[in-house]
């Protein structure tokens, strides 16, 4: 227990160029910085949430090159050259995206902490079904449907402890039907 | 304003804005990620450092030594604060166990250090370099069933002993005698506890995530031996609480200690795997229930005995509360026991008492109905009471439980099918129902309204919105009372410089805080009446105008010379609890499928019919109830903290190990509110619903599973291992 302290190398920063919500972002980062913390702490885009930092809750969901990922499970330095879309890039209070509007009108949230992640996932889910990507509950691989269970299954990586699930489903359903 | 008799007609009765399905006024901020939660307050203060906590690796014993040399030498580290550097910090009355300081360890993951560094990654890495030597005490018993036999007399409380239970039960024609277990549970609010702390000239500012601003302020003052006036607390957005953010927790203490030592602001979030053992949980309960009835289904004798775990000085989970009030019956014996178990602190979680109590009582009622050959809906109706059974002179201010049951049965299409009588292919279908009871307390609550020259109204109160909808229902209250449109109301919440409110907890927040704002608005109306030399009771506030007979003046005109400020606070007289019993009621109905081969449980639909006085906003009230229903599904099917009986901690301490319901677990949910006001409750005639929604739900699910399979599981949650060997042959 009394081992002499080992000297630590000073971590050198690594340059990363991201495109975040259409804007270039040049960062020099400790390689241990997750994509989530690059967004939240370095770019101060705090719309993406940290619920667990372990890939267990979905609060940190963002789009990278058009696909949704848990940004807490990915190091920022792995994303050099990538296009990242966060909730801030989806809409603003003055110009809500239809999915955001639907979340408001169906009360698809309570505390709001899981909400940015839910909205990023919801938008991605509709796109995944449109592209015919099957899921665990898909019955007919040729025709992936917009059934309630397809939506529920695909949203199941986004936990909402406030329990807004039924209202979130209604919001996604409305956007899907309007599209 | 003193509320010392039931409300009569008042301006809130207009219900032009109140009671209307208004969407949340903070909705645009929350859906765009622009609502900033505690850890995200980059705007709060310049130069924030990162603090990363270290939790104890033993459940009980002492820290002998902490070698911090390596951590202190690590890149970016500014300072390290350890528990050995100070005595145990003064402890607020509301905390049962210490938060920091001194060598003694009383629970696993008790905070023992915080590393402060320039970046999060540096602080986290250095926290792992601290070498701790412990003297571990392994003599403790952590198993509740074992501890149940060792409860001391002073930890046994007889709530009710009326009539002669033992004789009446002995003579009863039909009897049930069963024991139920509800597991320890944890809140899992999605935002972990987090705080930023900053010291200037001996004053402490904290941006945190708190349900109760003033409790946090007082507790910080106690902890750091400060005048409460020297402590400022802000918490405008809270990522869920459910009782887990009522009291000061280690995040704020560590941030304040780190900031003091570093001389710079520090922010600390509890890492998710530390939240469960570092903070509080709902205690485990073992509940023994005996019910005796006549052949016709009248309860004659009822017994409820509960034991739960708590560290010394705590209250555990008293799951007997609803049994005192819910069903009639002449002979009653109700006992609560506290087993001293030195696990982390057990404390409030959504509907403390009733949530666990109804999991047992409402299954017992179902079992009893089955023994009687009665419809469980009818059995409950037969034992309804309009007075408190142990004290018949006290009557319920409003109790429409029978209406909930009948309305629910009709809406759901309840037919009381026989167990194992419904099937759809590989799936057994079950219907189940339960009743719900939850008290309707109220707390003093203050507010300030500031009418602006531009005709806007600023509302200030330290009330919090933990997802409950406080921002919206308070704005609706102000709009109703002043006749201003909703977009002219500017809400400011969660700040200790505003009047002290009820805060959010115990299902009292909505009813109390709107009553406090009502009082402030009545004060503003009185000031305006005085200026107009009119009778405040005859003035009409509508469409931005103040109308006195033929005279009509714009409201904004009263602030033309400068803002007009009114402040008041509601206080509740004891008639509310002495003459009446105030409570909320519900009936839950559930349809489930159970796979005949695999035992997989899939809920099909859920219905709740609620009786909770005036509903201030049906949109946010419904959300509170579906949220409770969802958590109730978790209680029924998956939520359980697993205790390591030898090492004394919760093993599954993250979101992968502690499972909560996800989208696919939750079916269609319907909520119906009975219309009507309860004038005994508050001037707005409202009661809370946030905890009613979870109460009883797990039992309805359990009863539906029994109805599908014929199997009764009395040990929650109902996981496959507990019933697969008892499924009917396929
Ligand atoms: S924060 Fe990334 S999954 Fe929870
Ligand atoms: S809205 Fe609170 S966790 Fe989803």
Helices and strands in order, then pairings?
The complex is a heterodimer of chains A (179) and B (730).
Chain A (H helix, E strand, L loop, with lengths): L13 E7 L2 E7 L5 H8 L18 E4 L2 E4 L12 E3 L1 H4 L7 H8 L9 H16 L17 H8 L9 H14 L1
Parallel strand pairs in A: 1-5
Antiparallel strand pairs in A: 1-2, 3-4, 3-5
Helix pairs in contact in A: 3-6, 4-5
Chain B lengths: L1 E2 L23 H5 L17 E7 L5 E7 L1 H5 L3 E6 L21 E2 L5 E7 L2 H8 L3 E6 L7 H5 L7 E7 L2 H7 L2 E9 L11 E7 L2 E6 L4 H11 L7 E4 L15 H13 L3 E4 L2 H7 L6 E9 L5 E12 L10 H5 L5 E10 L13 H19 L3 H7 L4 E2 L2 E6 L4 H12 L9 E3 L2 E13 L5 E7 L5 E4 L9 H13 L6 E4 L16 H24 L7 E3 L2 E4 L2 E4 L9 E9 L2 H4 L1 E2 L1 E13 L5 E11 L6 H20 L5 E2 L4 E2 L17 E6 L23 H13 L21
Helix pairs in contact in B: 10-17, 13-14, 16-17
The site of one FE2/S2 (inorganic) cluster (FES) has 12 residues of chain A, from loops.
Fold-level CATH name of the largest domain in chain B:
Aldehyde Oxidoreductase, domain 4
Q: How many β-strand stretches of chain B?
A: 33
The figure for the number of domains of chain A is 2
CATH superfamily of the largest domain in chain A: [2Fe-2S]-binding domain
Quaternary structure type: heterodimer
Beta-strand percentage of chain A? 5-15%
């Amino acid at each position: 227990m009394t081992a002499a302290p080992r000297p630590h190398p000073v971590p050198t920063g690594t340059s990363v160029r991201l495109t975040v919500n259409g804007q270039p972002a040049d960062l020099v980062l400790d390689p241990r910085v997750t994509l989530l913390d690059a967004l939240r702490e370095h770019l101060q885009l705090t719309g993406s949430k940290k619920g667990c930092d372990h890939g267990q809750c979905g609060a940190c969901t963002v789009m990278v090159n058009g696909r949704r990922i848990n940004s807490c499970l990915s190091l920022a330095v792995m994303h050099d050259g990538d296009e990242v879309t966060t909730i801030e890039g989806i809409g603003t209070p003055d110009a809500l995206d239809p999915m955001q509007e639907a979340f408001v009108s169906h009360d698809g949230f309570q505390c709001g902490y899981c909400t940015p992640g839910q909205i990023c996932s919801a938008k991605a889910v509709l796109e995944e079904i449109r592209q015919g990507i099957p899921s665990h509950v898909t019955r007919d691989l040729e025709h992936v449907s917009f059934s309630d269970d397809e939506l529920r299954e695909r949203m199941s990586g986004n936990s909402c402890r406030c329990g807004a699930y039924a209202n979130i489903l209604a919001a996604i359903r409305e956007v899907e039907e309007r599209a | 304003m003193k509320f010392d008799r039931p409300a009569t007609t008042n301006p809130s009765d207009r219900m032009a804005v109140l009671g209307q399905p208004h969407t949340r006024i903070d909705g645009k901020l929350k859906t765009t990620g622009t609502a900033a939660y505690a850890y995200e307050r980059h705007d709060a203060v310049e130069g924030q450092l990162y603090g990363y906590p270290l939790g104890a690796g033993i459940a009980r014993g002492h820290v002998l030594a902490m070698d911090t040399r390596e951590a202190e030498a690590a890149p970016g580290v500014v300072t390290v604060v350890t528990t050995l550097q100070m005595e145990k910090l003064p402890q607020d009355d509301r905390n049962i166990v210490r938060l920091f300081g001194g060598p003694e360890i009383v629970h696993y993951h008790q905070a023992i250090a915080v590393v402060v560094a320039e970046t999060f990654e540096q602080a986290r890495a250095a926290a792992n370099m601290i070498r701790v030597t412990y003297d571990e005490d392994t003599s403790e018993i952590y198993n509740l069933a074992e501890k149940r036999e060792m409860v001391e007399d002073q930890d046994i409380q007889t709530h009710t002993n009326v009539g002669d239970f033992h004789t009446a039960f002995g003579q009863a024609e039909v009897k049930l005698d069963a024991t139920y277990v509800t597991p320890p549970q944890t809140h899992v609010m999605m935002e972990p506890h987090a705080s930023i702390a900053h010291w200037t000239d001996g004053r402490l500012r904290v941006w945190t995530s708190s349900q109760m601003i003033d409790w946090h302020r007082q507790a910080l003052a106690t902890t750091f031996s400060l005048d409460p006036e020297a402590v400022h607390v802000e918490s405008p957005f809270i990522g869920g609480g459910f009782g887990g953010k009522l009291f000061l927790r280690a995040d704020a203490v560590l941030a304040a200690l780190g900031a003091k030592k570093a001389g710079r602001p520090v922010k600390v979030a509890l890492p998710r795997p530390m939240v469960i053992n570092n903070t509080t949980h709902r205690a485990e309960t073992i509940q023994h229930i005996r019910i005796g009835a006549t052949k016709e289904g009248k309860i004659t004798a009822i017994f409820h005995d509960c034991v739960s775990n708590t560290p010394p000085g705590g209250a555990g989970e008293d799951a007997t509360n609803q049994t005192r009030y819910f069903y009639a019956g002449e002979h009653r014996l109700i006992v609560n026991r506290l087993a001293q178990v030195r696990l982390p602190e057990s404390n409030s979680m959504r509907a403390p008492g009733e949530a666990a109590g109804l999991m047992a009582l409402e299954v017992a009622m179902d079992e009893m109905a089955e023994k009687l050959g009665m419809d469980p809906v009818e059995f409950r109706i037969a034992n309804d009471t309009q007075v408190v059974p142990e004290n018949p002179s006290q009557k319920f201010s409003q109790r429409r439980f029978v209406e909930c049951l009948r309305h629910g049965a009709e809406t759901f299409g309840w037919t009381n099918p026989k167990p194992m009588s419904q099937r759809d292919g590989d799936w057994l279908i079950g219907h189940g129902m339960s009743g719900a009871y939850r008290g309707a307390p109220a707390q003093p609550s203050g507010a300030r309204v500031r009418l602006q020259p531009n005709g806007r109204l600023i509302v200030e109160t330290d009330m919090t919105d933990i997802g409950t909808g406080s921002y919206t229902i308070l704005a609706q209250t102000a709009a109703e009372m002043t006749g201003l449109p909703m977009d002219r109301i500017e809400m400011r919440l969660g700040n200790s410089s505003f009047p002290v409110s009820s805060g959010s907890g115990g299902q009292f927040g909505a009813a109390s805080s709107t009553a406090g704002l009502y009082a402030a608005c009545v004060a503003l109306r009185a000031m305006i009446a005085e200026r107009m030399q009119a009778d405040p009771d005859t003035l009409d506030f509508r469409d931005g105008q103040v109308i006195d007979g033929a005279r009509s003046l714009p409201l904004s005109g009263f602030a033309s010379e400068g803002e007009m400020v009114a402040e008041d606070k509601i206080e509740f007289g004891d008639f509310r609890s002495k003459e009446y019993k105030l409570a909320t009621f519900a009936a839950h109905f559930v349809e489930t499928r159970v796979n005949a081969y695999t035992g997989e449980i899939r809920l099909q639909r859920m219905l709740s019919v609620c009786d909770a006085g005036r509903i201030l906003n049906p949109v946010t009230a419904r959300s509170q109830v579906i949220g409770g229903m969802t958590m109730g599904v978790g209680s029924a099917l998956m939520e359980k903290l697993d205790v390591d009986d030898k090492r004394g901690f919760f093993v599954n301490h993250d979101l992968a190990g502690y499972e909560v319901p996800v989208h696919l677990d939750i079916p269609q949910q319907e909520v119906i509110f009975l219309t009507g006001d309860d004038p005994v409750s508050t001037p707005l005639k409202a009661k809370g619903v946030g905890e009613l929604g979870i109460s009883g739900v797990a039992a309805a699910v359990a009863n539906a599973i029994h109805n599908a399979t014929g199997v009764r599981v009395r040990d929650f949650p109902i996981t496959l291992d507990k019933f697969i060997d008892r499924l009917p042959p396929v």
